[in-house]
């Protein structure tokens, strides 16, 4: 039978990084480093340069994922890219990435699931690989999120950053159903009744932060339980938690729920802020580059975002 194995990870962050104080000064915000960092854990964020597109960042992340997998672009037959900040309604950002990578074969398309986008893209790519629709897929989360922020709303504009992350999935023949390698399962959910608590309206992000917080911990906890149960595992089997990076308090709550020591939870929110669909693959790239996550490790990923959408994925590296 066929499984999707994560062959390589990559990430890209724009060169410009602003501290909370620098952001406040640049956008004349009535806020403070203490307010932002105590409530969210955010200390800095990267911002795309003028003219730097979501596709530019996505392509850069893909190049690293390919290089770290020892793969050539000619082996890629699918690009599935999650973003809330596409460069245009069409062409999709995924086809723009395909062009930048010089890939002429296969297919590419975007996925819209806000901050849960990477988990959705991973789920779709994994299903397509398992059914033979493609053999090798770049799964990308890429965001120029600071372009949709309302700089007069201090409750949202301090929370987000720009960047991209990618993984290369490869179809790999494994012995049987019980084989414990690659993407083990993905679990996707949405509930449109809560669409208005986190949305883009008139081109800008609007969020009822407390409402989002209230949904986050319970929905993430149930997705994580579902993922573990589906694989006959319990929380003691998890070696790494790679959560969506929205808020350090939500991340800490999930780490505590799983009984994981803080050093087993990958955190980038302090340096990247919330990069929406890019946050999980950026965190994966971080923790594989420095050797924390290695071959054989069981990694649990989870995310919640506008929609509401939420989900979890389990992968054996
Ligand atoms: N600096 C200073 N004061 C601020 C700021 C700021 N940047 N933002 C809001 N305030 C003020 C408000 O004006 C309000 O003042 P008031 O009491 O005088 O009216 C006060 O702080 C409290 O505002 P709340 O919005 O109620 O602040 P809260 O304590 O809920 O914290 C936060 C806001 C950090 C966004 C929190 O609700 C949260 O973490 N929510 C989770 C949502 C999240 O992480 N979203 C990320 C995107 S969604 C996702 O990726 C899952």
UniProtKB/TrEMBL annotation:
UniProt keyword annotation of Lipid metabolism present: yes
Q: Which residues form the Beta-ketoacyl-[acyl-carrier-protein] synthase III N-terminal domain?
A: 109-192
Keyword annotations from UniProtKB, A to Z: Acyltransferase, Cytoplasm, Fatty acid biosynthesis, Fatty acid metabolism, Lipid biosynthesis, Lipid metabolism, Multifunctional enzyme, Transferase
**Which branch of life, at top level?**
Bacteria
Uppermost EC category: transferase
Which biological pathway?
Lipid metabolism; fatty acid biosynthesis
Q: What is its main location?
A: cytoplasm
> What does the entry's free-text domain comment contain?
The last Arg residue of the ACP-binding site is essential for the weak association between ACP/AcpP and FabH.
Q: What is this protein called?
A: Beta-ketoacyl-[acyl-carrier-protein] synthase III
């Amino acid at each position: 039978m066929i499984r999707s194995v994560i062959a390589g990870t990559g990430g890209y962050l724009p060169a410009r990084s602003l501290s909370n104080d620098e952001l406040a000064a640049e956008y004349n915000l009535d806020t403070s480093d203490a307010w932002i960092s105590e409530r969210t854990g955010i200390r800095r964020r990267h911002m795309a340069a003028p003219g730097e597109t979501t596709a530019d960042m996505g392509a850069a992340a893909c190049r690293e994922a390919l290089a770290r997998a020892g793969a050539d672009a000619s082996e890629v037959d699918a690009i599935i890219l999650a973003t809330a900040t596409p460069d245009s309604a069409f062409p999709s950002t995924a086809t723009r990435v395909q062009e930048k990578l010089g890939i002429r074969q296969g297919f590419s398309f975007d996925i819209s699931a806000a901050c849960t986008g990477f988990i959705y893209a991973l789920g779709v790519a994994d299903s397509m690989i398992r059914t033979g629709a493609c053999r090798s897929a770049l799964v990308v989360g890429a965001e120029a999120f600071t372009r949709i922020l309302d700089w007069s709303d201090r409750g949202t504009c301090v929370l987000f950053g720009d960047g991209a992350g990618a993984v290369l999935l490869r179809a790999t023949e494994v012995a049987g159903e019980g084989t414990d390698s690659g993407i083990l399962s993905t679990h996707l959910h949405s509930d449109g009744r809560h669409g208005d608590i986190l949305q883009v309206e008139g081109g800008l992000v609007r969020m009822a932060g407390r409402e989002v917080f209230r949904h986050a911990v319970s929905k993430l906890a149930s997705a994580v339980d579902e993922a573990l149960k589906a694989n006959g595992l319990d929380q003691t089997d998890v070696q790494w938690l790679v959560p969506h990076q929205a808020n350090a308090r939500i991340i800490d709550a999930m780490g505590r729920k799983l009984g994981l020591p803080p050093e087993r939870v990958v955190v980038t929110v302090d340096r990247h802020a919330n990069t929406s669909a890019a946050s999980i693959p950026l965190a994966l790239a971080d923790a594989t580059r420095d050797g924390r996550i290695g071959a054989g490790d069981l990694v649990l990923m989870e995310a919640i975002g506008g929609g509401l959408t939420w989900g979890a994925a389990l992968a054996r590296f």
